[in-house]
Amino acid sequence: MPIDNSNMLKAIEEFPAQCKTALGLAKGMAVSGKINKIVVAGMGGSAVGGDLLKAYLHSSKIPVFVVRDYKVPNFVDEATLVFAVSYSGNTEETISAFESAERNKAKIIAVTSGGALSAQAKKLIKIPAGLQPRAALGYLFFPLLGVLANSNIVAVKDDEITEMIDILSKTDEFKIAGERIAKKIGTRTPIIYASELLSPVAYRWKTQFNENSKTAAFHHAFSEMNHNEIAGYQAMDKNKFISIFIRSKYDNERIKKRMDITKEIISTKVDVEDVFTKGEHLLSRIFSGIYYGDFASYYLALANKIDPTPVAVIENLKKRLK
Amino acid sequence: MPIDNSNMLKAIEEFPAQCKTALGLAKGMAVSGKINKIVVAGMGGSAVGGDLLKAYLHSSKIPVFVVRDYKVPNFVDEATLVFAVSYSGNTEETISAFESAERNKAKIIAVTSGGALSAQAKKLIKIPAGLQPRAALGYLFFPLLGVLANSNIVAVKDDEITEMIDILSKTDEFKIAGERIAKKIGTRTPIIYASELLSPVAYRWKTQFNENSKTAAFHHAFSEMNHNEIAGYQAMDKNKFISIFIRSKYDNERIKKRMDITKEIISTKVDVEDVFTKGEHLLSRIFSGIYYGDFASYYLALANKIDPTPVAVIENLKKRLK
Lengths: 322, 322
What we know:
With 322 residues, chain A is of the alpha/beta class. The first copy, chain A, contains 12 helices and 9 strands.
């Protein structure tokens, strides 16, 4: 079977342009009235968009909940803004969660490229179709941020956006680093770590290795891993696993110290690879962290002679679930 | 080095008695006034107590947040009940989170066996000392539930408690199953799955394997794993990994079906072991699920000639962090 990588590589390379387009998609879309809770209902890549929103709003007075399930929690009410996010619009969990949010009279905005969700939603942000959902992360995040900005729930500064786009636009840097990391990983199982704040970035790496590279991959957060997972390194085999630390200047000083000491301790058992996120703003830190992983997962697929684009097992599962 | 397992085995065997004692520890402790958010700040085993509370309150109108970090979120306020939970009372993240909750004027109850936290807390539930924190899960969960019951935030029925204690008291059943599962795992890395609702049970298994058995272990939830992790099974090696599915009659019918089909699909790559939780009530489902894993992790330590009790690497890390 020949490996056709052109679609996924192109999608990853065009990610900065996708973010720019995505920023305009929420134009004119806002909610009014009291909002004291935000829920993002979605699965896979769509849920990661919610995780990133939660990270971005980490210092907000309004809590963000990411729901990866068939219903929204019972505390969802009229004062809850619910984003129902599904790239295809046909994710059964998200449609079911959307319906439960309707029963709870939440303010709902659907974000989708089509499908049943676009037919059912009263308020809709339509995003461009034709990508693998995981390659559409810009479309699955920035419209949510746009709605919150339009609704005066969060202030997004122009220079945050500009910096992020500028950093990502130096695509070659991420590409080269991603290829280098992929080579280093080889056939080993990567375990990706970040601070609690950036743990969605670590999770995104994990899911990209799963879906693009079709390999096992796991993640955990600092400092929680210091309380359990680190003990599992006692019998760890350098040939089986490799650890990746995603670093940020936004990490608490104690977290930085924990990462340094943990690296020293576990380096006797496994190789540890540091990945340094970039930028002055949190948005840049988040998306530069993600961009390294997107390329790493792509090149790991190539190295293992895997076509990164199709995920046959997920498609097969969906068919069997019908 | 001789392996002294007596402490950990004894602690696990006495877990039903610990739960009974723990149920009385919140006696007379309640909060009054408006509560519209509950936060559990803790790390490791103490945070798992919070995860279990969140699962138990999954249909509540009051959201529960588990904070594994150095500070509580900014939305913590006078109407927030914060449990600061640290078995030793000296967990730096929890003390720091406790202090941030005080600055936010939250209603705080500390749950600890002593340490700095017990000295700093104005409201305190003192739990018995002398155990490994992970062996004190009863003390780290039931006092929180007790406070919520005393404060009329949740109604805990006597027959839920009775059923759970009855089920756990048939200890031999869990012991025998745990030993059998440990034998099956051998030197492979377990990946433990449960529904989103019971994912804290899967996480508890993971942490017990890490700390008791000193082995790598990972977890994920249904149906999210169907959207990414399942694709990682393509290159999975039966000799490296084994998958464990924790099942419950409380699982959504679609989740049950997803588990069945996923098992069929991944069984071509790895062995899959089902673990069936017990009981009519959610509390029994949670704790019977946990109890199997506690014994499995204990017997996996023995099988690999590991002393389950000490976690030298965590103690070493703490010393180096000072």
